[in-house]
Design goal:
Helix content: 25-40%
Radius of gyration: 22 Å
Number of helices: 13
Largest sheet: 8 strands, mixed
CATH class of the largest domain: Alpha Beta
CATH topology of the largest domain: FAD/NAD(P)-binding domain
Strand content: 25-35%
Length: 394
């Protein structure tokens, strides 16, 4: 027997997009049900991105879920671009009128959001199976799922597809409706989480003959570091000693020392740029990774997902308050303006800092000239800083 449920907005996926949307809707007095096929423990422990734009920090604070972020997050007002063995700081505070970024891991953001949804009686259902969406081409969409041996059907007014790149929502849209824009990069990142104090106070992006490297952090005691590698690199071939040796080589700079420590996690991540248009069909709205993927160089994935659902929450609030669908109808076009600007920035950062397998000596000198220009021109530095701390919310 199928158990019937009713809500205003059905949300598939309990990642940043789904949980932020659910809580924003709650603050507007709009009901939602979130379904997620992973466990809450998995969602809250999976190590992902940790760079929050100024706008994301402001939004989480306004939502009432920023207390722990404010206490534990690391606020940075710049990054370093290192090439030719020398570092060059981009001063966000000066170039953007006082804006910065906050280092606070995505899984911690999700833990804060889950706690907030539970405290306010929100319905977030983990470990559901056989999720499917139906009738979203009209005004009576449904989400079906199975949990604890029982079958459920959620009737709702709208469905938000926040279930990531490999989720079920985007593939459920009929063939021929969507246009996909895709670029797969010929390299990946070998990332490690190390029990070692960060070797710098801010993120360090390095361009080196042997490939890109990034020094980031999660806490004052945990470092996150990355090496450019082949996209199909076998992590088993990278013992800890080899990883540290390569990091020392790529980060080498006079008077600077990389701090080592036990490696807690390591893995290889491929890189791609992906956008689907439109981001809506009927009563289904795609948000976050279900609609777009950015290479991690610009630290934009989580922030872009939150920007999407900020637009969607505002549109749904307008609809339920007034019956006006104009913002809902404009959801895709509004989001895509920001999406493509973020794609441009992420592609630019990636192209400037990585070695490409088919490059020639001209390409290398062009990259070095680009880095020299960005770090010596106030206008170019300002453009990087404005994009990195986050473009204004639409």
């Amino acid at each position: 027997m199928q158990i019937s449920q009713r809500t205003q907005v059905g949300i598939v996926g309990a990642g940043p997009a789904g949980l932020v949307l659910s809580h924003l809707l709650h603050l507007h007095g709009i009901e939602s049900i979130v379904v997620e096929n992973r466990s809450r423990q998995y969602v809250e422990e999976r190590v992902r991105a940790g760079v929050l734009e100024q706008g994301t920090v402001n939004l989480l604070t306004e939502m009432g879920v920023g207390e722990r972020m404010k206490a534990e997050g690391l606020v940075h007002y710049g990054i370093e671009l290192r090439f030719g063995g020398r570092g060059h700081r981009i001063d966000f505070h000066e170039l953007t009128g006082g804006k910065g970024i906050t280092i606070y891991a995505q899984n911690e953001v999700l833990r804060d959001l889950n706690n907030a949804r539970i405290a306010t009686g929100g319905q977030v259902l983990f470990e559901v199976e056989n999720v499917s969406i139906h009738d979203f081409d009209d005004t009576r969409p449904k989400i079906r799922y199975r949990k604890d041996g029982a079958d459920y059907e959620v009737s709702c007014d709208f469905i938000a597809g926040c279930d990531g790149f490999h989720g079920i929502c985007r593939p459920s849209i009929p063939a021929g409706v969507l246009t996909e824009y895709d670029r797969v990069y010929p390299f990946g990142w070998l990332g490690i989480l190390a029990e070692a104090p960060p070797s710098a106070e801010e993120l360090v992006y390095t361009y080196h003959d042997r490939g890109f490297a990034l020094l980031s952090m999660r806490t004052p005691h945990i470092s996150r570091l990355y090496l450019q590698c082949k996209p199909d690199e076998n992590i088993d071939h990278w013992e800890d000693e080899r990883i540290w040796r390569e990091l020392h080589t790529r980060f080498a700079s006079d008077g600077w020392k990389l701090t080592e420590g036990p490696i807690l996690q390591k893995g290889v991540t491929g890189m791609r740029s992906f956008v689907v248009e439109p981001m809506q069909y009927g009563s289904l709205f795609l948000a976050g990774d279900s609609a777009h993927i950015v290479p991690p160089t610009g630290a934009k994935g989580l922030n872009l997902a939150i920007a999407d659902v900020t637009v969607l929450a505002r549109a749904l609030h307008r609809f339920y308050a007034t019956g006006n669908r104009s913002l809902l109808d404009q959801y895709s076009s509004t989001c895509l303006r920001r999406v493509w600007k973020v794609q441009r920035f992420s592609w630019w950062m990636t192209s400037m800092l990585h070695r490409f397998p088919d490059e020639n000596p001209f390409d290398r000198r062009r990259q070095l000239a680009e880095l020299d220009y960005v770090t010596t021109s106030r206008a170019a530095s300002t453009s990087l800083a404005e994009n990195y701390v986050g473009l204004p919310m639409e």
